Amino acid sequence: MNAQTKNANQKFEALLAGYTMQTIKFGDFEMIAWSGDWSVARSIFKKASSKMRSKVIESGYHEKRELLSAMFGSSSEYGKVYSNGKLVGQIEMIKKSSKWTVRVESFV
Q1: In 1, 26, 28, 92, which residue has its Cα 20 to 30 A from 53's Cα atom?
Q2: What is the mean pLDDT of the chain?
Q3: Are 60 and 38 in contact, with CB atoms under 8 Å apart?
Q4: pTM confidence score
Q5: Which H or E run includes 47?
Q6: Could you count the other beta carbons within 10 Å of the beta carbon of residue 41?
């Protein structure tokens, strides 16, 4: 992914986070941390899912909440699960001990 975006002069860099996240319905996912443009990252993850015939989670979606609950509430994110380039499910993750874990998962 990094080589492809570097050759295309796009802003994106991915690093392995060093752990896997386990889900019941979708299997295990190796976690990465990335930086760069959101649209470039989304395109790359969908391409990786379809070309490598793998499952990927596109996360970073947040629920709109009041300011105080957002500041003091638990840190949670929502994600979309793609398999072979198609949306197959949704997932809610929470951060515990600086690692993301699954809270809720569902098929689309």
Answers
A1: 92
A2: 88
A3: yes
A4: 0.82
A5: helix 38-51
A6: 21
